Amino acid sequence: MERDVFEIVVEKEFIALSPEERIELKNYCSTEEEYNQLKQILVGVNTMDWTNPEPKVETKEKLDVLFAQTHPKADGMWYNSALAVIAPKDKPIYRQPLLQIAALALLVFLTVPFLQQNDTDDSIPLVAENSIDAGNEDVVKNTDVSGGIEEKKEDDLADTKDPQDEVSLPAVMTGFVASRGISNEVSVSAAESPTSNHPDGVFISEESIAYSLPASDQPDDVMDLLTTSF
Amino acid sequence: MRLIKPQYKSMSDEELMIAVGKGDKRAFDEIYARYSGPLLGYFIRMLWKDREKGEDFVHDIFAKIIRKPELFDPTRKFKTWIYSVANNMCKNEYKKQEVRKNTSNGLDSHYALSDTNANVLGEVQDNQFRSEFEQSLQDLDEKHSGVFKLRHIDGLSIKEIADVLKISDGTVKSRLFYATKYLAASLKDFNPVMNR
């Protein structure tokens, strides 16, 4: 902290003053004699004991009464203290615990349903989607048949419940078979085909066509049907 | 309800005043402990060494703090604010006394009181100097003596005095030097520095 001019007067002799200090003091005391007179008074004042007196006890007591009247204490209800903790008035609203808890609860409320929805989407088998895509009641029957096969297989092979054992036809194949009106035979023969490696029991490989019909029973226009897609 | 108790001793005056505004009794007690003594000394010095009046003024100034703590602007320094309030109270008292003096029979009780003090003091050289000094200070006009007391007795800096009295730093310095020169001339027969 910068010393003021009076501290300089108390601490320094006239001859010890720097040029800057002399310039500052020039307006107030020009000679050494005046300087020493000022110094004498200031040193005298500083050496005097200026201990402050203590006010009377009655003064404080009166003020305590006045304070109690002016600021009566709040009721001792539990919610006063609870509110003081969760919604203190001296904090900005975004720092109040009440608002923070509410914001967290809202976040959880909005997030959790989305997470659960994702879980249910994964459990829907791909077969059902394929069956609906075909848009034909017969196709649904076929898939029902495959479902029946599943049930039959479950009955027969109750001890080996492997989801990979489920047999179903690819969408293109079921559509084709349905159009030809040879549903059950084909499906049964399909059931004798090798098991699928897909977790949903779906055949994606083109090899499934080879197992569905013997080459002799293959319709003439089957190549036309297949080549239209190229 | 607070989990951590506030440390009133380490709190600033301004923080304490904010707490007083919310009805914190302990904060008020701390403010009172810090300023009641210095303010009582200030009032006694400014009001013709009248202790009873000083006590009344201390009560009044703290009653103002209790009733209207919002009068204090927390952006200001509390020390300068409280001294400016005290200074205004003294000015009002001077005006009252001036009216009474003009309507009284010409006797001034304050001069009688200070004369009594001057008679009590006197045998020890320091006490002589002190009594003469106090008498000279009292003879000095209020605006110069007030600045001198604030600087050298109450310990306020030049800037704080300027804030209290709402005058410039240069005016404070000028008044201080005038007062010091006046006292030096009045007490030229005493030389406390040489006597030590």
Protein model, in words:
The complex is a heterodimer of chains A (230) and B (196). Chain A has helices at 5-11, 19-26, 32-47, 57-70, 78-86, 97-123, 126-134, 137-156, 171-180, 184-191, 207-212, 222-227. With 230 residues, chain A is mainly alpha-helical. In chain A, helix 7 crosses helix 9 and helix 8 runs parallel beside helix 10 (184-191). Chain B is an all-alpha fold and 196 residues long. Chain B has ten helices and no strands. Chain B has helices at 13-21, 25-46, 51-67, 78-103, 109-120, 125-139, 142-152, 158-165, 169-186, 192-195. In chain B, helix 1 (13-21) crosses helix 2 (25-46), helix 2 (25-46) packs antiparallel against helix 3 (51-67) and helix 7 packs across helix 9 (169-186). Chain B is globular. The termini of chain B are far apart.
List keywords for this structure.
heterodimer; A: 230 residues; mainly alpha; 3 domains; elongated; B: 196 residues; Rna Polymerase Sigma Factor, Chain: A; 10 helices; globular
